[in-house]
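Hi all, posting the design record for the shared folder.

TITLE: backbone redesign
STEP: 1 of 1
STRUCTURE INPUT:
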């Protein structure tokens, strides 16, 4: 193993194996049931603090998509435009814990981590801290580690190519996250890149140099600032490619939203939870509405509007 790769792995293995609240392991066990994927990755804001009233984010990585129970339509959607996403909630130790769960195959995960990927979604997620909260066996753990290492290397490479000058390691990453959020057409507050970086400066400083070396990128360092050795022509090519990725990414995420209307399992329960979470109003679902959210969406939205208006009048 090369020294840059070993340096990356020391950081990433430490993160992936960091313990999480035992209730999250119980939640994952309920979500999986009898299914045994290659692994389950926990990521997002829930890593920073256990919030029983929040939403926990998981990625389930399968050896093949057919390993996860799904309708033919959902399976086709996941093949064409991964990942499929669903909402889950389970009572754990007297608390109702909620999760947003994405499902994709190992092949899809590996392709999304690559520098050749035309989709920023996966490498932009998993260059950030994650926990491996369920894994099939040591071989699967090594495979997932190698993909996450690729995510970090890909992200660092883009960071180097999209900005100019010499900057501290965390500044390269802040700039990258600002660009990736815009490319994904995500509705986020201004300064989201800085929020992601809070308390993580040491982590990204430890990753930047070995990630650039692992990607074959030379750089200069002076007074704590790093400057990649890239020509203007190389940067221009990278910027043009990024612009194409960003345009495709916006349309891809619109398409994912449309797809979710047909494949987002338990979408009605998710809508009800979001309404209660943000307004305090309880939207009670009938069994039919819970099973058929797409059919019932107009009536659900109308009832939610009436609940909100009645609360305003009260």
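Okay, here is what came back for every position:
SEQUENCE:
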């Amino acid at each position: 193993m090369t020294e840059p790769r070993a340096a990356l792995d020391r950081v990433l293995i430490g993160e992936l194996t960091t313990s999480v609240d035992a209730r999250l392991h119980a939640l994952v066990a309920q979500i999986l049931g009898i299914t045994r994927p290659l692994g389950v990755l926990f990521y997002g804001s829930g890593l920073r603090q256990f919030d029983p009233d929040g939403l926990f984010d998981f990625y389930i990585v399968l050896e093949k998509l057919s390993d996860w129970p799904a309708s033919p339509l959902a399976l086709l959607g996941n093949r064409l435009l991964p990942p499929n996403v669903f909402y889950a909630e389970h009572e754990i130790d007297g608390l109702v814990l909620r999760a947003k769960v994405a499902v994709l195959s190992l092949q899809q995960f590996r392709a999304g981590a690559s520098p050749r990927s035309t989709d920023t979604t996966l490498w932009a997620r998993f260059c950030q801290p994650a926990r491996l909260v369920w894994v099939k066996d040591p071989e699967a753990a090594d495979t997932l580690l190698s993909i996450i290492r690729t995510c970090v290397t890909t992200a660092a490479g883009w960071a180097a190519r999209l900005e100019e000058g010499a900057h501290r390691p965390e500044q390269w990453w802040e700039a990258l996250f600002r660009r990736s959020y815009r490319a994904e057409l995500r509705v986020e507050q201004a300064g989201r890149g800085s929020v992601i970086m809070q308390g993580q400066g040491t982590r990204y400083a430890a990753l930047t140099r070995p990630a650039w070396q692992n990607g074959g990128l030379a750089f200069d360092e002076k007074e704590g600032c790093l400057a990649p050795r890239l020509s203007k022509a190389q940067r221009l090519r990278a910027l043009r490619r990024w612009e194409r990725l960003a345009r495709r990414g916006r349309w891809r995420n619109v398409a994912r939203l449309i797809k979710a209307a047909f494949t987002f399992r338990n979408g009605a329960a998710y809508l009800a939870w979001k309404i209660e979470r943000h307004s305090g109003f309880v939207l009670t679902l009938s069994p039919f509405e819970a099973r058929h959210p797409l059919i019932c969406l107009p009536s659900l939205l109308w009832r939610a509007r009436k609940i909100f208006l009645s609360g305003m009048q009260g």
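COMMENT: The mean pLDDT is 85.
Let me know if anyone wants the other runs.
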